[in-house]
Amino acid sequence: MKKLIFGFILSAGLLNAQDAELLTLPEAITYALEHKAEAEKARLDIRKGDAQIAEVKSNAYPNISFNSSTSYNPLLQESVLPGEIFGAPGQQVKVAFGQKWTSSNMVQLTQNLFNQSVFVGLKAARSTKEFYLINAKLTEEQIIEKVANAYFQVYQADQMLTNAKSNLEITNQTIKVIKGLYDAGLARKIDYDRVVVARNNVSSGVKQLENTVDLAENALKFMIGMPMNEEIELPEQTFEPSLLPDRSADFAARTEIQLVNKQIELLEWQKKATEAEYYPTVALSANYGFLGQGDKMPWWNGKENGVFWSDMASVGLNIRVPIFNGFATKSRVELNMIEIEKAQADLRETQLGLDLQHKNAVTELDNNMTMISMQEENVVLADQVLSNTRSNYQHGLATLNDILDAERDLTEAKNNLTKAKLDYKLAEIDLLKSQGKLKTLTDIN
């Protein structure tokens, strides 16, 4: 009894595990933005910007350090002095200076009072974080575009499979018709054999398309960062083309333009940081510590053991005024200006490319809508031609070749309609991208 219950529970679990998850386009995009490595690295770059700001700020804070140095001098340096000093006129006396042990322990504080490069660095660090924020937004848009393209590729493969299965049913119907005529002595054996061969070819195509669907689904899973063992299913209505009445575009709002503008801003700050080399710097320094000297290790000995300790302190103001460095700073400023001009040229090229992208997207959208209408009409006509050809064949007015040609024409028309719908959806994505509205894909129901 326990084994029976356990088997039932295990079977139920396996069935639930095999249930396919209905995956809409917004859900696929949201999943990708949460799990793809590119999105995660973009978020880490934002944290990196915060760390860079904190690093630059540290230059404006006091810097406190402790330095300890202890040395042992087995041989003291001797100096030769006149003997008169020691009451021995006419003689030279060697005198050793210092102690065998010395220990210096010092706390040092430095504080920048004026440093133009620090002020410029703080502003540049904030712009760097803004750059990372814009880059993260661009990364999200790129992920959305890739996921949407992969998503509709699954639809195309699935629709092609549906078309092949429909063609297989049509071929089976043709086999039934010819089989009935052959049994009645009204058709030849070779005609029946030919439609069976055609049916086998179509069946082989179905198997190949089933594999294509699996590959497309795996590509989509990889694109969104989903494990390959997850089963997914796409809703049917999503592949239908929708109208996008708004064809306008504001290129200034495009993330690509914002990113290049921010790059130019960062290059401007880099130039100002170089120009900061012309400014003087002022810093305050303060030191306080203890010096121990004697014949023994100073750390744990005092005056009673022949070790003498004394404290010392100093306060200083350090001023550095640049005067001439061989025009090195001027040359670096010129190099910075060249980089700015190159970035401005990139900005003009980016604006031109975005305008081209928008114009092409609008043209492709209109052309593909026309193609969909034409292919829908072709499917209806091809279906009528196949029906009429079958009827004519039964009355001896058409050949088997006519039937097979009509079946191929119907399959081709359906596949062309599927491709036209996919091209329209891809053109929709291109138009939304050119308008800077790819995020709206996450709102589709």
Automatic annotation (TrEMBL):
Sample GO molecular function, one term: porin activity
Pfam families, per database record: OEP
Keyword Metal-binding carried by entry: no
Metal-binding keyword on record: no
InterPro entries attached to this UniProt entry: OMP_efflux (IPR003423), TolC-like (IPR051906)
Compartments where found: Cell outer membrane
Coiled-coil portions: 403-430
Signal peptide interval: none
GO CC terms, sorted: cell outer membrane; efflux pump complex
Record keywords: Cell outer membrane, Coiled coil, Membrane, Transmembrane, Transmembrane beta strand, Transport
PANTHER family: OUTER MEMBRANE PROTEIN TOLC
Protein family (similarity comment): Belongs to the outer membrane factor (OMF) (TC 1.B.17) family.
Protein name per the record: TolC family protein
